[in-house]
Design brief:
The chain is mostly helical and about 190 residues long. The protein has one domain. Helices cover about 80% and strands about 0% of the residues. It is built from 6 helices and no strands. The radius of gyration is 25 Å and the shape is elongated. The mean pLDDT is about 90.
Amino acid sequence: MDIKNLSIIRQTFANAVFTHKVQEVAAENAGRKAMYVKITNIILVGIALSLFILQAYNLHIALFSFLGVGVTIAEVIFLIIQLSFDFEQKKILHKNSALKYMGLRDCYRSLITDIMNESLSQDSLLAGRDALQREYNIISELAPQTGSQEYTETQIRLNKNGKVEGEEFTWSDEEIDRFLPESLRLKK
């Protein structure tokens, strides 16, 4: 068994697992923001309509007119913000990236299996490793940006010890083993 290539492939597999989860967390966060935006939009429209109805029945009270205009202006500004920061589209982009990383993760798992079964020639192993690395790089270049919030939340979700301060995005064999089925773990 080619331990050195297995080690490199396991590290990249762990990176794919982590990045997959980061993109999932980002999709969840964008989805939550999209829901808040929709609810706020419905509330603003409801208030504006209510004020216009009150204004129609109370023409002599100028307060309803001023409030209706104010809420309408707020709604227009909110719609501009909503169109500028399309959280629904961001959610879809993050979800699509997560799915690509998930597929890549499964390919890495298959390559790890083949290495551990010693069913690949050295040339096939190197070709598979290099092809998956190219695919990982392409997916990473096309993936939407994430932030420290998603990174921290992913650390907490994937690490049984929670967020680890000073972590440099490296993986111990024990951490990688948690992402693999028992038959593919190094420490059984």
